[in-house]
Amino acid sequence: MSKNKKILTGLILGAAALMIMMFSSMPSAGSKEITISDIVDNRDQYKGDYIMTQGLLNKDSVQWDADKIELEFSIYDENDVTLPVFHKGIKPDNFSDDVIVIVEGFVNEEGVFEAEKVQTKCPSKYEGEDMENYDVETHQELLND
Question: For 98, left (φ over 0), alpha (ψ -120 to 50), or beta?
């Protein structure tokens, strides 16, 4: 093996090792998905852990301070257990009723979830229409035009 190939191989291996170390040390790489009920019932157990949870947005709880870029809201699960959330960052565009909110972060001493990452998804947006109302003739007309 020539000297240049050895140097190139060493650089590639070093870069690969550095990338692996960076991605494995990122907080989200070690996040655990926990239910809202479990977080509320056992918040002391998750103190200091980077965790992820999701729930439905309580639209009435949203408090957005654009000057400070701070967002406060609460999410709830199927058991109607509510989790207050604080996020220092921008408010997602589609913050409305029937939105599922996914948060990643830490639970503080007061039981407030301090989110480092907030994402939304709207399940109704991706669901198909009711097949009982499907009109085959109209569909065929649209395809033939």
Answer: left
Q: What is the pLDDT of residues 30-51, one digit of tens each?
A: 567 889 999 999 888 888 889 9
**In terms of domains, do 61 and 118 share one?**
yes
Give 78-110 pLDDT, tens digit per residue. 889 999 999 999 888 887 766 899 999 999 988
Please state, in angstroms and rounded to a whole number, the distance separating the CA atoms of residues 69 and 34: 27
Same domain, 98 and 135: yes
Determine contact, residues 87/118, Cβ cutoff 8 Å. Answer: yes
Token readout for 112 is 């407030």
Q: Please count the CA atoms within 13 angstroms of the CA of 114 that sit on its side-chain side.
A: 11
Does residue 10 sit in the same domain as residue 38? no
What backbone phi and psi angles, to 5 degrees, belong to 86? -125, 135
Confidence category of residue 7, pLDDT binned at 50, 70, 90: confident
Do 106 and 115 touch, CB atoms closer than 8 A?
A: no
pTM, two decimal places? 0.64
